[in-house]
Specification:
Elements lengths: L7 E3 L4 E3 L5 E4 L6 E5 L2 E5 L3 E6 L4 E6 L1 E6 L6 E5 L8 E2 L1 E8 L4 E7 L3 E7 L6 E5 L13 E8 L4 E8 L13 E5 L20 E4 L4 E10 L2 E9 L3 E9 L4 H6 L2 E6 L6 E8 L6 E7 L5 E8 L14 E2 L13 E2 L2 E7 L1 E9 L2 E8 L3 E7 L9 E6 L10 E2 L6 E6 L2 E6 L9 H6 L5 E4 L4 E4 L8 E3 L10 E9 L2 E8 L2 E2 L9 E5 L11 E3 L2 E7 L8 E9 L2 E9 L11 H9 L3 E3 L2 E3 L24 E6 L2 E3 L3 E9 L6 E5 L7 E6 L5 E6 L5 E8 L5 E10 L3 E6 L2 E3 L5 E7 L6 E4 L8 E3 L5 E5 L10 E3 L1 E5 L2 E4 L4 E4 L4 E9 L2 E9 L11 E6 L2 E12 L3 E8 L9 E6 L2 E5 L2 H61 L16 H9 L4 H7 L14 H10 ...
Parallel strand pairs: 22-27, 50-56, 58-66, 74-81, 80-82
Antiparallel strand pairs: 1-3, 2-32, 3-35, 4-5, 5-6, 6-7, 8-9, 8-10, 11-12, 12-13, 13-14, 15-16, 16-17, 17-18, 18-26, 19-20, 20-21, 21-22, 23-24, 24-25, 25-28, 29-30, 30-31, 31-32, 33-34, 34-35, 36-37, 36-38, 38-41, 39-40, 40-44, 42-45, 43-44, 45-46, 47-48, 49-51, 51-54, 52-53, 52-55, 53-54, ...
Helix pairs in contact: 4-15, 7-22, 7-24, 8-23, 9-11, 9-22, 10-11, 11-17, 12-15, 16-17, 17-18
Length: 1508
């Protein structure tokens, strides 16, 4: 057994499989026969018979070669097989392979010398059972014959026969007829394989004279035998022959009836056949050729033998002579044509529940799945597998006999096991349903898409039993009476378990209330809601429908529209709008009535809806391409101006792909053709109203392949002419080497099987290395398996010339190498003075150390030449005769004295020149410093606040996330636990008994204040603990802001009356008490509305302006320092020279090559690749108002007709010492106006995947960008280090940045201390009045002290926190550099609240000096603001209480109060004794202490349980 030599390969091979459990077995030759039975797969090639397991693991194999010993008669011979390594004189050509499970044998028949048959053990083919020289089936390999088992059942016994339907009449014995029944055992009349019959009549069926036949398929169902064939006369006609299984061969064959199969209203040739198992009627499907050699259709027939009884005589087959006349010829028409596809070669049908699933193989290597519903309506096709080569799928396919989850197919020299579905790829219920796969459904317990048998004891949801549904949940709105509307939801699902139907419920809700007047009615699959039409406003109504099926929730967001309001001229757009709104379309208008059509197919009857002629397509270039797609395709036609997109779609209305257009002239336009499965697709042009016009098609073909490269070596200087041999090379769009990713010029010959190119040069001529060659097709790079070996350039040492008659023979010596030079690689010229002579190459003689290149100059008048020039690639080598070298040596010796004298003279001149150069460099250095100072001055004087163009939608955080970030700045699990889950948002969570009791206790103000004081008195109660307790109290009491305010007042009063704070100007400046954290939390709650409505936009504009200003100049990617900044600590004073670039950025759409319209992005020549990515994504978000769909992208630069990958680090990166410089746009020589393509790494993976360099923990050590590492290197290696830099010169950049953003700073400050409607926010007025009252009660008369308290409590503890942390307010990230700039602004903000004048000198910090002239003006505004608040009429207690109640209600149920209470109890538990003691000291009532003990017992009882 040698099957182990071939090996089993999983999920590999030249193909694109959609499933992850493919198995493939590679064979030693082309497949001739395939069969599956019990637990084995049997395969026959020209020389071997294989037995494989169902997993395609090899079990046994037999060599079909052997030793033939002839006898005295042609049928008297013996044949003995030999092992694979042994010699034989004959090969057993197998033409029939039939598993016979009934007697445990495998019937293998064919030809050795003549007919030969073997019976092998079905479970182990290495065990022979019987052999005989006998004819069974055809003797002609690969002819159109079939053989299969039939069972003749009588009252007494059951007899098995081989039905052999034979195309060829070639025979070694005496055989007649085309259809025979042959025995399967020795107990039958005439022994095994005999055609004899007990009846004297001839036991065979004949074909009418002058007809030829091709048999296609045959099988038996019950007592009926079905045989399919093509009768060839003037044209092929498909024929079905019926036979009834009777008690004898003669009776069986004599029951012959036949009918012509007609597909597509005419006769066509039958190519492949499949029985449809099960069902009340006998269904059968056939693949028919229609016209051209590649046009095929799949049609389904009802072939039940009940049509005309005995009168259905076949016009071409006959059993007796009387059958030759009197026949009736009534064709059998197809029930339905299911699929039109090129090159279909095979078909398999499977019945799955109410569905019929077809698997079709094609001549170009596809396996296609097509589900069909009970009404024979086809659904969308799925390509289960696709070869990259044009390997035809074998004409027989088999289903896995164990569980039916796999299909066995053969292609060329391999057998594959392909899963019928890959349900796991669909990650949600919607995706699982949208796949429209009868095998797949959503398993509730596993929360994944599975086969039904993989979802035991759980709800399993699958697609409905009809194929017309386009949505999982649809709706219809009807008018049922005066003022009454009915909204009906329909869930298009099939439920595996009927019990769950009782738990089918629906809820209809709108923003204000429930929608339904009487409550919804639910009966699977429908939900109905009756409501009054007054609830449906003119602008429409947003409705949320929550559907529950078992444990699976479905949520639909609807916008209901008054159907009568959808009016206008009947167009495609209006019809689509009507159907989408859930209305009906009737009489060319939208209506409530249920008689209207609800299917959007009715809209296809309308025109484009534009006052223009419809677009027409005259040509598409290219119209044939590989399945990878094609960039920059061109459509030519008429009336193309209104076209917005190009749509590609298969025959049926399945998923389509669309590509945007550009360069639309009205007569032509450009677009990208996305990748697709092999075959033809329709192309139409999409107009603004959504309609699509045009009738054209394109054809996808196989991928280009690279089979060999010759020669496979090249010299370092490149340009060696090299040939690639492969297939479909006409689809190649570019060629690149792996070591130098620039496109190479190439040419393709006429038959598209060879491609010629010149190799690229190597970066280092001395290195020997391999470089792979890749074919560029659309957005794919296909690497050739054969690499090209780079060797040093050839070394030519000398030449000699010899006269041969009138010709001159030249022999050039060359050092031996591994280049394998041929005469095609070289051209040689001989020179006599200025005159050149072509030397015709004769050959190359090779030896171990030197090679001799021989050429001849024909008709050379003079035998002497002075030199030869040797050309290879683009290099030229000149050789001279040996005598020339002696003369040259003599000249050199004579020149030595002259050289010495000249050297001395040169040295003196060089010294003077060096002095001049030094002076010049000093002058240049002075000029550089002057220019830097002048440029800084220019920046300061010309800088304008013109940064904002389009900031897009401001990404405000919702209240819940804003508050949680201010309460818990550190984030973490504590913050997460206090946020209400999404699933808890709808219904308020019921607190358990423990939390209810604790909540009641902390709502006792006396207990709460005593508890806080008790905690604060503990030495181990840290500042972090104080902040946490304050925030937990804020969350726990968030629903009762009135009470929280009362507690805060009492705690603030106690803090102020504390002896250490009565005159302290540091009070409220830091968190030394719980209330000092409770106060900013309270401010966050009360000022959120003011922050969002009045301050938020100005803050976001300032942050955006800072980011834009920073990005205007160089930013060091490693240290994050920038040329434009507000902070001296973050100033990039070593910034190099740079230029501004405007780049055209194209976004790849999907995975198929389409690109968007260009987006202009500003960048700098010194930007790294990652910085460019960030600028592209920021520009995208600013322009469109939303983020690009992924941040995992890569960039390509369009240069010389191809896209070159841009990488942070590659082989060309500059290295200084142990550090590598990150590549910049200047490094890649990206010019102004260049095109950059953005691709998702998920859909366009790079050839050499590279993560972010910043992920390296030693990033700052291993890499550098604009600031060179501290290493001793030759200054000439880094041009940027030649320019001397002074930090102080660039301090003007701080001022220019300040000028650029000053208007934003000013607007922000004035918004903070602004008073909308001449009134300060309620919380600020309340707080300031409270502090004034407290000071008055405490008889404090120092106005400065009260000013400081107000400033500390509001400006320092709240506004500065917001200024320095914009990520608390917006969905954004804050970089360390941005934090540094905001800190400078925050310092200026606080300086504006200082009472005394600041004395700033020469050495004052730059962050103080920067706003030194602005702070006095800000101070005046602050004083006026404080005075305005003080003079504002007091807010009444009832008005403020109403404000607090409104804020509580507004943010009700935002936080998980129970979680906060449980966390708060942990502190009570830790300091339980101390709290009890404090309660005793304060004289707390006994009931309060008992309640505390009761709560402790409750929590202690639940210690063994987790808090959920």
């Amino acid at each position: 057994m040698r099957a182990g030599l071939l090996g089993l390969l999983f999920a590999v091979g030249l193909g694109r499989g959609l499933c992850q459990q493919d198995a493939v077995f590679e064979l030693d030759g082309r497949v001739r026969h395939l069969a599956v039975a019990n637990s084995s797969v049997y395969v026959v090639t020209e020389t071997r018979l294989y037995q494989l397991g169902l997993d395609l693991a090899p079990f046994q194999s037999q060599c079909l070669r052997g030793v033939l010993q002839k006898g005295d008669q042609i049928y008297n011979f013996t044949f003995n097989k030999v092992a694979q390594w042994e010699d034989g004189n004959a090969t057993f050509a197998v033409n029939t392979l039939i598993p016979f499970p009934g007697n445990g044998t495998l019937i293998v028949c064919g030809v050795v010398e003549c007919g030969y048959c073997e019976l092998l053990n079905l479970t182990d083919i290495s065990k022979p059972v019987y052999s005989e020289a006998v004819e069974v089936g055809s003797l002609v390999p690969n002819d159109a014959s079939v053989g299969f088992l039939v069972n003749a059942v009588t009252h007494e016994s059951s007899q098995w026969y081989i039905l052999a339907a034979i195309q060829s009449n070639k025979t070694c014995f005496t055989r007649e007829g085309s259809v025979l029944l042959q025995n399967t055992n020795d107990q039958q009349t005439g022994l095994i394989f005999s055609v004899s019959s007990q009846n004297t009549a001839r036991p065979f069926i004949m074909i009418r004279p002058h007809r030829s036949v091709e048999f296609v398929h045959g099988f038996q169902i019950g007592a009926t035998i079905y045989l399919f064939a093509n009768v060839l006369e003037k044209r092929a006609t498909a024929r079905l022959v019926w036979l009834e299984s009777r008690q004898s061969k003669v009776a069986t064959l004599g029951s012959l009836r036949g009918v012509t199969l007609r597909c597509c209203a005419q006769d066509h040739k039958l190519l492949a056949s499949a029985q449809v198992p099960g069902g009340s009627s006998v269904l059968w499907a056939g693949v028919f050729g229609t016209g051209g050699p590649s046009d095929t259709v799949l049609a389904i027939f009802d072939i039940s033998p009940v049509r005309g009884g005995a009168s259905d005589k076949d016009p071409d087959f006959y059993f007796t002579d009387k059958d030759l006349k009197g026949f009736i010829h009534t064709p059998l028409e197809a029930e339905r044509v299911l699929l039109r596809r090129r090159f279909m070669t095979s078909v398999l049908a499977v019945r799955h529940k109410s569905w019929i699933v077809f698997f079709a193989g094609t001549g170009d290597g596809q396996v296609i799945k097509l589900p069909v519903d009970s009404a024979y309506r086809p659904m969308c096709t799925t390509v289960l597998y696709e070869t990259e080569l044009d390997w035809a799928v074998f004409h027989k396919m088999y289903l896995d006999p164990v569980d039916g989850k796999y299909v066995y197919v053969a292609l060329e020299k391999q057998v594959r096991r392909i899963p019928v579905s890959d349900c796991n790829t669909h990650k949600s219920l919607q995706a699982c349903w949208s796949a429209q796969d009868p095998y797949c459904g959503w398993c509730d317990s596993k929360q994944s898409c599975t086969f039904e048998e993989d979802c035991s004891d759980s709800l399993w949801l699958s697609i409905p039993e009809d194929s017309s549904q386009q949505k999982m949940v649809s709706y219809q709105i009807q008018q049922v009476g005066s003022g009454q509307l009915t909204l009906t939801m329909n869930t298009h699902l099939t439920v595996g378990t009927k019990e769950v139907l009782t738990s089918f419920t629906c809820e209809f809700s709108v923003s204000s209330d429930d929608l339904c007047d009487l409550g919804p009615t639910s009966k699977f699959p429908f939900c109905t809601c009756l409501f009054n039409s007054s609830k449906l406003p003119a602008e429409g109504l947003h409705v949320t429908v929550n559907i529950t099926l078992g444990g699976v929730p479905l949520t639909e967001q609807l916008k209901l529209t008054n159907c009568s309001s959808i009016a206008g001229p009947p167009t495609y757009f209006l019809c689509q709008r009507c159907i989408t709104a859930g209305c009906g379309w009737n009489n060319n208008m939208c209506s409530w009535t249920h008689t209207g059509l609800m299917n959007d197919s009715v809209c296809q009857t309308f025109g484009p809806g534009l006052e223009t002629s419809m677009p027409e397509i005259s040509s598409i270039t290219p119209s044939v391409l590989s399945f990878h797609g094609k960039n920059h395709a061109v459509i030519k036609g008429r009336n193309l101006s209104p076209v917005t997109k190009v749509r590609l779609q298969r025959d049926m209305a399945c998923s389509s792909k669309e590509s945007p257009v550009w360069n639309n002239t009205g007569m032509s336009l450009m677009f990208n053709i996305s990748s697709g499965d092999k075959g033809s697709v329709k192309v139409c042009l999409v107009l603004p109203d959504g309609s699509c016009h045009g009738n054209a098609s394109i054809s996808y073909r196989s991928s280009p392949t690279c089979l060999s490269i010759f020669p496979s070596t090249t010299w370092a200087s490149g340009k060696r002419k090299t040939t690639i041999t492969g297939t479909h090379l006409e689809f190649v769009e570019g060629l690149v080497h792996s070591h130098k990713p620039r496109q190479i010029n190439y040419q393709i010959n006429g038959n598209s099987t060879t491609l010629i190119f010149a190799t690229s040069s190597a970066d280092n001529s001395n290195n020997i290395f391999n470089s792979s060659v890749s074919l560029l097709v659309a957005n794919k790079s296909l690497a050739c398996s054969t690499p090209i070996s780079y060797q040093p350039d050839p070394i030519f040492t000398s030449f000699t010339s010899t006269r041969t008659g009138n010709d001159l023979r030249i022999t050039i010596e060359k050092t031996a190498d591994k280049l394998g030079l041929t005469t095609r690689d070289l051209t040689v010229q001989g020179f006599q003075g200025e005159k050149s002579y072509k030397c015709i190459m004769e050959g190359i003689e090779k030896s171990n150390s030197t090679d001799a290149i021989i050429c001849e100059i024909r008709n050379m008048p003079d035998a002497q030449i002075h030199s030869v020039k040797i050309h290879f690639g683009e290099e030229t080598v000149v050789l001279r005769p040996p005598g020339d070298s002696h003369l040259l040596l003599l000249i050199v010796i004579l020149l030595i004295p002259c050289i010495i004298v000249a050297g001395v003279f040169f040295y003196c001149r060089q010294q003077k020149k060096l002095t001049d150069q030094m002076n010049k460099r000093i002058e240049d250095l002075e000029l550089d410093i002057r220019n830097d100072i002048r440029q800084g001055f220019v920046d300061m004087q010309t800088e304008k606040a013109d940064l904002m163009e389009n900031i897009g939608v401001i990404p405000f955080l919702d209240y819940k996330h804003f508050a949680s970030r201010t309460f818990f700045p550190e984030g973490g699990s504590l913050m997460a636990s206090c946020l209400m889950d999404i699933s808890q948002d709808v219904v308020k969570v019921q607190q358990d008994e423990r939390c209810q009791a604790l909540s009641k206790l902390i709502h006792n103000q006396r207990f709460l204040t005593s508890m806080v004081h008790a905690l604060e008195e503990q030495k181990n109660f840290t500042i972090s603990d104080k902040c946490t307790v304050a925030s937990l109290l804020t969350v726990a009491l968030h629903g009762d802001l009135v009470y929280l305010t009362q507690v805060m007042e009492e705690l603030l009063g106690a803090l102020m009356e504390h002896p250490s704070n009565t005159q302290s100007k540091l009070m409220l400046r830091s968190t030394k008490s719980v209330v000092e954290k409770l106060l900013p939390n309270w401010m966050s709650i009360c000022l959120y509305g003011f922050l969002r409505e009045s301050v938020g936009q100005h803050l976001f504009l300032l942050v955006s302006a800072l980011k834009q200003q920073i990005a205007k100049g160089p930013v060091d990617c490693v240290t994050e320092k920038a040329l434009y900044t507000l902070s001296e600590d973050w100033l990039l004073w070593q910034a190099p020279d740079f230029t501004s670039l405007k780049l055209k950025v194209l976004f790849a759409v999907g995975s198929d090559g389409e690109v968007s319209e260009p987006l202009e992005v500003s960048a700098l020549s010194c930007d790294t690749v990652e910085q460019l990515q960030e600028k592209i994504l920021s520009t995208f978000k600013a322009k469109f108002g939303f983020s690009y769909n992924t941040r995992d992208i890569r960039l390509e630069f369009h240069r010389d007709g191809t896209f070159v990958p841009l990488e942070e680090v590659d082989r060309s990166s500059v290295v200084l010492g142990a550090a590598t410089m990150l590549n910049t746009l200047k490094h890649y020589e990206v010019p102004d106006g260049a095109s950059i393509k953005v691709l998702s790494k998920r859909t366009h993976p790079p050839l050499s995947p590279q993560g972010s360099m910043k992920d390296d923990q030693d990033f700052e050590v291993k890499y550098f960008h604009l600031i060179d590492p501290s290493v001793d290197e030759d200054q000439s290696k880094n041009l940027e280090k030649k320019k001397f830099k002074l930090k102080e010169v660039h301090l003007t950049k701080l001022l220019s940045t300040k000028v650029a953003v000053h208007s934003f700073v000013k607007n922000l400050f004035q918004a903070i201390w602004g008073t909308p409607h001449s009134r300060a926010p309620h919380a600020i007025k309340y707080l300031f009045d409270f502090l004034d009252t407290q000071a008055e009660n405490m008889k404090l008369t120092d106005p400065d002290l009260i000013h400081i308290w107000k400033t500390n409590s509001l400006s320092l503890r709240f506004w500065v926190n917001i200024l320095k942390n914009p990520q608390f307010v917006f969905d954004m990230e804050k970089t360390p550099h941005l934090d540094g700039c905001l800190s400078v602004i925050a310092q200026a903000f606080m300086d504006s609240f200082c009472l005394g004048e600041m004395q700033l000198g020469q050495y004052a910090p730059t962050n103080k000096l920067l706003y030194a002239k602005d702070v006095p003006q800000f101070r005046q505004e602050v004083r006026a603001y404080y005075k305005q608040v003080r003079d504002q009429p007091p807010i009444s207690s009832s008005e403020f209480k109403e404000f607090l109640l409104e804020e509580s209600k507004k943010h009700d149920n935002e936080f998980n109060e129970s979680a906060a209470l449980r966390e708060l109890y942990k502190y009570i538990q830790r300091y339980y004794t101390e709290i009890q003691q404090k309660l005793d000291q304060d004289g707390a009532p006994a009931e309060m202490k008992e309640q505390l003990a009761y709560i402790k017992n409750l929590f202690d009882d639940m210690k063994s349980c987790s808090w959920n």
